[in-house]
Specification:
The chain is 18% helix and 27% strand. The protein has 853 residues and is of the alpha+beta class. The protein is globular. The protein folds into five domains: 3-176, no CATH class; 198-389, D-amino Acid Aminotransferase, Chain A, domain 1; 397-510, Nucleic acid-binding proteins (OB fold (Dihydrolipoamide Acetyltransferase, E2P)), CATH 2.40.50.140; 557-659, no CATH class; 665-772 and 814-833, DNA primase, PRIM domain. Helix 11 (566-584) packs antiparallel against helix 12 (636-644). The protein is built from 16 helices and 43 strands. Strand 1 (34-41) and strand 2 (45-53) form a beta hairpin.
């Protein structure tokens, strides 16, 4: 069939006098080529997945968007073919037209079918690979049996298990990479001179909001506070007469907020992006979430007010790198005096946070939002925005309900849950108050539509409460409730819960138990002595995070024993980066990744993988033949990008990329066996040093971050790997022969009970050791720290320093190793003393066979 005929349906559905979409026409035909995924904020947000085939774009609408997780299967409804030129389309389809809403190019690239693509499309199983900016690796489209009433054939889009696969809990590509990949529009000329401090850019079609972190108390330092508003987050794109309102998840609510759109349009704001909250106020003027929900349920939003608190773009200026105070002052001037209008400026409060929080509670507000003065705007959650609540309150996933008791109708209580770090829904108690009769009836109807025989809770309850008839009815976890409560019980259930309403602006999968986090304190006043002044500066806030670093899920706990979070780990690496980077420079690195934290699964990544860790340097593949390129961390941004991708430990080679075949150090890892006391470990380190000193070799010491110690010898890069490793093995075997009550040369646990294995295996080609200042994936999350030898006698049992407690060591930093580079040495004399010959690597003795006679 000709391409022009394939596009008949596409052309019939569109009025090209009104829509900016390209007209369907015959184009160059080729067997396979490009793919494009367009993020389409129509009545319902979805992603349009398109593959170039037979001169058109074969197209599927994917409601929940593509995923890099092989365990996630996405529904994909086949729609009409689109012209190839549609692959470049970005813009707004006008109201009243087919597919009305905004469209951005979310990803693009090339695709390659695996096998016969024509046969795969015809038979309903198409396997292919993608090479895009965001998606890569293998995928499969599988057609399902079509059911009555479906608009088009339904398929499943499934990611194959390969190097590009990523668990959603580790990396949600839709959340992490929400931006357009299309080329930016040409800059305008004649722009105002005030744009010199901000990037000139076209108005983006979509934006993700900055989110606040819950804290238990107001931090020290310079912060501005606003009232926390109990409503729906709303970002508004204003392009002259075209006004579009988007929820925090990118859903276009313009049609649901017709009155607000009209009010914004009447303000004549030009071209801008606004950020704020929509509310409905009660008699006291405080936001009432239930009233807001009722307004949407009734389809009457005339009472909705838009409290605007940020200005992100204005005309051709991207203001996000400006300070929050500067952005808000620009916003105040833009809006003018609109205190009694539908659109209002949310003002900054004056006073001490404690008094402000008390007054907010008395006035019926949920709490305060604090913003660090001078901070820029960051799409995602970080600790530049914080929230203080007057009481416990958060969202919960509804996993079931109970029958009503007595005269009550509808339902008795809702069964609540939150997701844990492994993506499991955990039961969090129930709520049975706060409902009107109308709400009970509506809820019962909604719950009936999603009722199911299986519980979604992991290890959830079989009975709720003490009432004999309170047998639970299970529902699919689709609805989110906002609940106020008095606190948490010891087993993780809410106390004295009150229902406030349903939320449909947050997906259930994002609902976790909120826990207050610490915010870095303001710098302390300088002490009198020079040493204490240096320590105070070191304890001050960590370096500013790079502007293009996006942090996701900083609140996720990665060590349950201490409460250390992913955000804490990133903050740690940001602060120690100047100390750590010299140990990583030009040195291939192996990354220990722990997406589920200390207690979850962990894996090493030694080589580059397609589409991952783009900020890391990839070395020439010739340096490690037969494998993908090795990795090097060249900068703070690369280091923090790795931490954002759940990298915890950094293990480095004993050679640099400049001389990969000649190691420039030896590492002796003192690994204690069962029953070894810390005093024995300190003694063992001194004994190893004494032997090395006798061989006229200078050594350096560091903690391992765990139970051990590392003794490091800087070398001149002269020997090959086999000889360097052979010498270290020869030395360890000598120790084991001379002091067998302390040392063992065999690595098995049974061999080293009560003794210490000095691990020489760290010195082979490709072997790695935890770098100085690397965190460790162990309870307590200790860190590896350089030491002076004279610190060893008084060194307490490890971990001495950890991700949560390292500030006191920052002033010392790398000073214990200040002469490290000057101490590079040859092994020639030591080899002669130990009677080790180059090329004579020690071999294991082969036991003699006994005769049977």
């Amino acid at each position: 069939m000709m391409a022009s005929q394939l596009l008949d349906t596409y052309n019939r559905k569109r009025n090209f006098r009104r829509t900016p979409e390209p007209r369907g026409k015959r184009e160059r035909t080729r067997e396979a080529g490009s793919f494009v995924i367009q993020k389409h904020a129509a009545r319902r947000l979805h992603y349009d997945f398109r593959l170039e085939w037979e001169g058109v774009l074969r197209s599927w609408a994917v409601p929940k968007g593509p995923s890099l997780d092989p365990q996630v299967k996405r529904m994909a409804v086949q729609v009409e073919d689109h012209p190839l030129s549609y692959g470049d389309f970005e813009g707004t389809i006008p109201k009243g037209q087919y597919g009305a809403g905004s469209v951005i190019v979310w990803d693009r690239g090339t695709w390659t079918p695996i096998g016969d693509a024509a046969r795969g499309l015809a038979e309903g199983k198409l396997k292919f690979t993608l090479q895009g900016r965001k998606l890569s690796g293998g995928f499969t489209l599988v057609r399902m049996r079509q059911r009555g009433g479906e608009k088009g054939p339904s398929w499943l889009l499934i990611k194959e298990r390969d190097a590009a696969a990523r668990p959603t809990a580790e990396f949600d590509v839709l959340e992490e990479r929400s931006e357009s990949v299309a080329k930016p529009a040409r800059k305008r000329t004649g722009a105002s001179s005030r744009t010199s401090r901000a990037a000139r850019t076209s108005l983006p079609l979509s934006l993700a909001p900055q989110l606040a972190t819950l804290v238990s108390s107001a931090p020290a330092g310079e912060w501005d506070y606003e009232l926390k508003l109990d409503g729906y987050r709303l970002l508004t794109r204003v392009d002259g007469e075209d006004v579009r309102c988007f929820t925090r998840n990118g859903h276009d609510w313009s049609s649901r907020l017709a009155g607000l759109v009209k009010a914004v349009r009447a303000l004549d704001l030009g071209r801008c992006w606004l950020d704020g909250e929509i509310i409905v106020a009660d008699e006291r003027g405080a936001p009432d979430f239930q009233r807001l929900q009722n307004a949407f349920d009734a389809g009457s939003t005339s009472q909705v007010q838009y409290m605007v608190f940020d200005l992100l773009f204005q005309e051709d200026e991207d203001l996000r790198q400006h300070s929050v105070r500067e952005r808000r002052e620009r916003l105040r001037q833009l809006l003018g005096d609109t205190r009694k209008a539908v659109v209002q400026f949310n003002p900054t409060l004056q006073g001490e946070p404690a008094q402000l929080l008390k007054a907010a509670g008395e006035a019926g507000f949920e709490g305060l939002v604090g913003k660090r003065a001078g901070s820029s705007y960051y799409s995602g959650r970080n600790r530049d925005w914080i929230k203080l609540k007057t009481g416990a309150r958060q969202e919960f996933v509804i996993g079931g309900f109970t029958d009503p008791q007595g005269s009550r109708s509808g339902l008795g209580s809702l069964l609540l849950g939150v997701y844990d770090a492994k993506g499991k829904l955990r039961y969090a108690g129930n709520v049975g108050t706060g409902f009107s009769q109308a709400t009970l009836d509506k809820l019962r109807n909604k719950l009936g539509d999603i009722e199911t025989a299986e519980s979604a809770f992991e290890g959830g309850p079989t009975r709720v409460g003490t009432v004999r008839r309170a047998v639970p009815h299970w529902v699919r976890p689709r609805l989110v409730a906002e609940v106020a409560f008095a606190g948490w019980t010891s087993d993780g259930h809410v106390r004295q819960a009150v229902f406030n309403g349903l939320r449909d602006d947050k997906p259930p999968e994002q609902i976790i138990r909120e826990a207050p986090r610490a915010v870095p304190a303001a710098p302390k006043a300088p002490a009198k002595s020079a040493a204490s002044r240096r320590a105070a500066r070191a304890r001050a806030a960590a370096p500013d995070l790079p502007g293009d670093l996006r942090i996701t899920h900083p609140e996720r706990v990665i060590d349950a024993t201490t409460g250390i979070t992913k955000g804490d780990l990133i903050a740690y690496y940001a602060q120690v980066a100047p100390l750590l980077l010299p140990h990583l420079q030009d040195r291939p690195v192996a990354l220990l990744r722990a997406p589920d934290g200390v207690e979850g699964g962990q894996f090493f990544q030694k080589h580059a993988q397609p589409g991952t860790l783009p900020k890391l340097q990839r070395l020439d593949a010739k340096l490690d033949p037969g494998n993908a390129p090795l990795l090097v961390i060249p900068s703070t941004l690369a280091l923090l990008t790795a931490a954002q991708m759940n990298v915890v430990e950094l293990h480095t080679w004993n050679a640099t990329s400049k001389a990969i075949e000649t190691p420039d150090r030896l590492v002796f890892d003192l690994d204690p066996g069962e029953g070894v006391k810390w005093a024995q470990m300190r003694e063992a380190a001194r004994l190893v040093r004494a032997l090395l000193t006798q061989l006229k070799l200078r050594s350096f010491l560091k903690t391992s971050g765990g139970k051990g110690l590392h003794v490091v010898l800087p070398l001149k890069p002269q020997l090959g790997w086999d000889d360097a490793k052979g010498f270290s093995q020869h030395l360890v075997q000598h120790l084991a022969r001379v002091i067998p009550q302390r040392f063992v040369a065999k690595s098995g646990p049974a061999n080293r009970v009560g003794r210490i294995f000095v691990d020489y295996l760290r010195n082979g080609r490709g072997a790695t050791t935890a770098s100085a200042w690397s965190a460790r994936v162990r309870p307590g999350m200790g860190i590896s720290v350089p030491l002076h030898w004279d610190e060893l006698p008084d060194l307490p049992e490890p971990p001495v320093w950890s991700v949560a407690d390292f500030a006191g060591r920052l002033a010392t930093g790398n000073k214990p190793w200040k002469d490290y580079e000057k101490s590079r040495q040859s092994l020639t004399a030591a080899m002669s003393a130990l009677q080790f010959e180059v090329g004579k690597t020690p071999r294991k003795k082969t036991p003699r066979k006994r005769s049977r006679g």
